[in-house]
Amino acid sequence: MRICFILNPTSGTNRTQDVPALLTRYATAAGADFEIQLTQRAGHATELAREAAVVGCRVVVAVGGDGTVNEVARGLLGTEAALGIVPRGSGNGLARHLRLPLDLPGAVRRVCQPTFQRMDAGRINGHWFFCTAGLGFDAHVSKLFAQAGTRGLSTYVKVALREYRRYRPTPVQMELENQVLVDTHCYVLAFANAAQYGNNAYIAPQANIQDGLLDVCLIDALPMLRAVRVGVGLALGTLATSSSAAYHTSRRIRVHAAQPLGFHVDGDYVTDATDFEVELTPLALEVAV
Ligand SMILES: Nc1ncnc2c1ncn2[C@@H]1O[C@H](COP(=O)(O)OP(=O)(O)OP(=O)(O)O)[C@@H](O)[C@H]1O
């Protein structure tokens, strides 16, 4: 079984480690037949992943954060190769959802002796996501976070607190697969394939990655008291049982916003739009767990 590690050298906050040397050490110790590729730019991991799948690698491993996982996974759709994850990001939403080891030696050992399962994949306006996508405040924060110059959880929290004072909800119409039309406001509208954003922030604690459905979480307004409740709910995994958010499940969702809203896929801001088509492809990807 050939394994290809695709390493994003810019991911993570600890850049002092010689990651290729460590990958080599742990994969050799696990008796793996492997190669290591380094990304040179954004988007490169998708090309490298597809090439690795074409030459017959059985597992193609994203070594990075959820952005790298997204790029590698996109490259593997429709191929015979499975996605592996060696988490190196700050959030690691998909790795945490799949209960993969978060430490480097443990994660490398796991991808060298994996079991395989299939998982669903979502698309929003044609952009694939594997963990979560969303509109509104979280996408707005992702956009500013990307421009912040520094990364990590503390930068994210700083940006979120600053923007919380300025951000206002947008009127939206949402149509679910079974024709239910919801006329509401969007502060946050999240489409969850996996249960969490990353960092164990559970936006949709009941989300199942194999059920053929997206969990849709709507927060229509976020006054201070509710913001505190949402924060606690995210951390404890109790948001779905609080009255702070409304939940639906659907395979297909359409949203029309009264003014342009930003959206993100797997935590990376994409662009602003007024119309959104969100769709789930059941069991689209094989994953090494
Ligand atoms: N060699 C590279 N140079 C610059 N950017 C890159 C390179 N390789 C990948 N990228 C981009 O870096 C982005 C961020 O990577 P990733 O999400 O893996 O790490 P992170 O931001 O540290 O993790 P997290 O999202 O968990 O905070 C990816 O979306 C990818 O497009």
Write the layout of secondary structure elements.
Layout: E1 2-7, H1 19-29, E2 33-38, H2 44-54, E3 59-64, H3 66-76, E4 82-87, H4 93-97, H5 104-112, E5 116-124, E6 127-129, E7 132-136, H6 137-146, H7 153-164, E8 170-176, E9 181-186, E10 188-192, E11 214-219, H8 224-236, E12 246-250, E13 252-265, E14 268-288
Parallel strand pairs: 1-2, 1-3, 3-4
Antiparallel strand pairs: 5-6, 5-14, 7-10, 7-13, 8-9, 8-13, 10-11, 11-12, 13-14
The chain binds adenosine-5'-triphosphate.
In short:
By secondary structure, the protein is of the alpha+beta class.
Task: Write structural notes for this entry.
The chain has eight helices and 14 strands. The protein is of the alpha+beta class. The chain folds into two domains: 2-114, Rossmann fold, CATH 3.40.50.10330; 127-282, Sandwich (Tumour Suppressor Smad4). The strands form two sheets. Strands 5, 6, 7, 8, 9, 10, 11, 12, 13 and 14 form a ten-stranded antiparallel beta sheet that branches. It is 28% helix and 36% strand. Strand 8 (170-176) and strand 9 (181-186) form a beta hairpin. The model has no long low-confidence stretch (mean pLDDT 95). Adenosine-5'-triphosphate binds next to helix 2 and helix 3.
